[in-house]
Amino acid sequence: MSEQTIQNDLFSNSVTILDKYECLNLGATTIGDLIVGKRIVCDKVKTAVKNKGKKPDVLIVDSSKKVVAYIEFKKPDEFDTYKKIQAAIKQEIDVARELGVKIFVATDGSKFVWINALTGLPILDEQGNKIIATIKPKTEEREIAKLIGRLEIDLSDTNNQLQLIKYSDPTNLAKKIGGLLKNIKFTTPKDSLYTFVELFLFKYLSDINILGTTENFDYIWNLYGEDGRTEAEVLYRYIHEPRERISKLFPEAPDKTSVINGFVFHAEKDADGNYISNNADATTFHEVIKLFKEYENIEGKFIDINRDFKSKLFETFTKQEKTKENAGKYFTPLKIVKGMVDMVDIKEGDEICDPACGVGKFLLEAALKIDEPFTFKNGHVVKKINLYGYEKEMDEKGSTSGYDLTTILAKANTMIYFSSLFKDNNTLTNIKTISQELLNETYYSSKTILGTLERIDGKQYDVILANPPYYQSALISKTAKDTGFYTEKGLGVEGLFLEWIIKSLKPNGVANVVLPDGIFTNVGNKRLHDFIITNCYIEGILSLPINTFFNTPKKTYIMTLRKKRDVSKKQNYPVFAYYCTSIGETLDVYRFDSDDNDFQTAVNKYNLFRSCKDKNQIEEYLKPIFEDDLKLKLFSIDSFQPHSAWDIEKRWTDEEKVKMGVKKADVIMNLDEFSEYLTEIVDDINNYGEAIKCLNS
Fold first, then answer.
1. pLDDT per position as a tens digit, 510-554
2. Confidence tier at 263 by pLDDT (50, 70, 90)
3. CB 583 within 8 A of CB 336
4. For residue 163, what is the DSSP state?
């Protein structure tokens, strides 16, 4: 087989690799022709006349036409000994160097030898083994793009080896900055979180080379070392240079939210051109930037971000609020979020909604159940699933921003969750497109009194995950009634949300929703109960412990509903019920992690239950798992009538609650025992009285 035939089998004429690279299968085309035709860019070759006539077999170029890999093909009989392989490498590696290429590959189509063109030595993987990866862009484009991208970063004239990927986890940095802002600026945890997120994005965009040399983190940091620069001037320059650039990269949506609205630091010029900043803003900003720099000096740059940090960032700041007075408005513990997401199936093509999305954790955790839910191809975001997060702009007590911080944080949170999407497509045009198509087309903020509830527009979803607000508002109830969308007379804002959710589900769609006890116990919800039974299958109800949510010292539940395809069909299988007493963290204001987590047990057993082919006939191997757990019950659907109470914990007997440890056993005494008990109490009181007299004397 000829060299050209082997090349054509692998590359055809030219093949794109994930819109990041293009393989040029060149044949008789010279380097000079490629430069004149602007198919490659390389200033060095202009002075290297001897190489302009060279005819490379295959070049891989990036989107800027820079050559990133030089591939030399040989026939198998010219590549079957060590000596022949070395000759093939020597023949063209100088040309690769002249092109400024780091990656040189010699191959016969089946065997691939990877060489660092800067050193002439084999390229090694993280463990020190020679890389022998095949280059088949027609079938293995993702793997090739990832490898080339890493080698471009790691290879140098002193390094031939792939570096181990180090995932940054700046949780402690976030805590330090949160404490600093609170102590000096007295900012709310939410404003502190927003400030950290903005500066984290500033640092991250700098580290992945999105921001230019006069806009990036190092530029701002180095200004502090220049004579005559005041802290106020550096802050002013950040606000009017890097921050302006970021605002253009992440344009506002129609609801006026971006990732760069609102800020707790301010600086300006006075009439004489002097830079001024009040309220210790400039000094505090300097201290925050210093903390980021100290982190970089120890841990390195923000290139790959630890997944746990992405998930826990919001909690890091919320837990700093001692009273948690407002936390529950936008805070669902991550363990609850993850558990609720685990209880539903997420499939490619699904439309997933959270009608009260807060900072987007339900949507983001759901997206993580899909392998690479978002990619970038042909200049656009390709979505395996579609996310829809709706939020009502709230007036936050103590907030200094004047913006809908919740939606801003949701967008910033999404960027952090899918940071690799931005990192791997790090041109200004691509970032702006991703911002529009992923961030702005996912989250929607409303300024109306009803917010999400303003309309039910016929849009239907496969999955709805939500922890909607629950409170009474006569104004909202009347305004909702006037829309004509709400006919089931559910009590409270939660009743309106539940009706919205059911009406917005596709047939066979699933909703997993946190609800307060009023939905289950209030006789005024009889009509809403009937609406649920008529339109949905009740798959499960989990009773959560009091104080699961920061500002909710009352009973809450998780209800799982599946919308019927045919409302004439009656549910013919039991409802899974679980009496949860712990959620994996303490239920006080500190929310320390705890090994006690029967909520996760409930999630695991619910998933076993829903996997049963016949839910009326549990498989033998599962029976001990179900029957030996006092906190688990399967209730007949007939026990859920419109007029009945649905608060499931009342269906456990006192004896069962004692065994479960949620109730103390009653102590019963006969008259003699009670008399003796009273005598002991009187004696104790007398003894305390004598002790007090002694102290007084």
1. 999 999 999 999 888 999 999 999 999 999 999 999 999 876 678
2. low
3. yes
4. P
Confidence at residue 399, expressed as pLDDT on a 0 to 100 scale: 43
**H helix intervals, 13-52:** 31-36, 49-52
* C-alpha span between 243 and 650 (Å, rounded): 56
Q: Could you tell me if 588 and 594 are in contact, meaning their C-beta atoms sit under 8 angstroms apart?
A: no
Res 9: pLDDT: 53
What is the spatial distance between Cα 145 and Cα 411, in angstroms, rounded to a whole number?
A: 27
- Separation CA 86–CA 637 (nearest Å): 76
- Which of 373, 367, 371 lies closest to 354 in space, CA to CA? 367
Are the C-beta atoms of residues 380 and 354 closer than 8 Å to each other? no
pLDDT tops 90 at residue 363? yes
345-361+389-395+448-659: CATH topology is Rossmann fold (3.40.50)
Q: Calculate the CA dihedral of residues 304, 310, 312, 316 and round it to 10 degrees.
A: 80
pLDDT of residue 146: 84
Among 487, 485, 387, CA closest to 443: 387
Give CA–CA dist 78/423, Å, rounded.
40
Amino acid at 285: F
Distance CA 579, CA 540 (A): 11
CA proximity to 459, closest of 540, 387, 519: 387
Q: What is the pLDDT of residues 301-340, one digit of tens each?
A: 887 887 777 667 777 776 665 544 444 444 788 999 999 9
CA angle 126, 131, 132 (to 5 degrees): 150
Question: In angstroms, how far is the first alpha carbon of the chain from the final one?
Answer: 112
Q: How far apart are CA 425 and CA 67, in angstroms?
A: 17
627 contact partners, CB below 8 Å, separation of at least 6: none
Which token pair is 252? 């506002």
Question: Given phi > 0 = left and psi -120 to 50 = alpha, else beta, which region is 683?
Answer: alpha
Is 34 a residue whose pLDDT tops 50?
yes
Task: Report residue 164 as tokens.
Answer: 């181990």
Q: Let me know: does 201 contact 259? Beta carbons within 8 Å.
A: yes
pLDDT reading at 507 higher than 90:
yes
Q: How far is CA 80 from CA 68, 85, 108, 500, 503, in A?
A: 26, 7, 9, 69, 68
Instruction: Residue 334: name the closest of 353, 300, 302, 310 by CA.
Output: 310
- pLDDT tens string 70-103: 999 999 999 999 999 999 999 999 999 989 899 9
Write down the pLDDT at residue 458.
78
Please give the C-alpha separations between residue 475 and each of 336, 455, 478, 517, in angstroms, as whole numbers: 31, 16, 5, 22
Question: What is the amino acid identity at position 33?
Answer: D
Helical residues (DSSP H) of 487-589, grouped into ranges: 492-504, 517-521, 526-535
Supply the pTM of this predicted model.
0.76
Q: Of 505, 243, 140, 484, which is closest to residue 353 (Cα–Cα)?
A: 505
pLDDT band at 3; cut points 50, 70, 90: low
Burial class (CB in 10 A: 0-12, 13-18, 19+), 688: exposed
Measure the CA–CA gap between 263 and 243, rounded to whole angstroms.
10
Report whether 163 contacts 126 (CB < 8 A). yes
Structural domain boundaries in the chain: 3-154, 167-318, 345-361+389-395+448-659, 667-697
Tell me the per-residue pLDDT of 379-428, one tens digit each, with 9 for 90 and over. Answer: 999 999 999 999 987 654 444 345 677 888 889 889 989 988 988 887 88
Q: Which amino acid is at 546?
A: I
- How far is it, in rounded angstroms, from Cα 220 to Cα 562? 53
Cα R_g (the chain), whole angstroms: 32
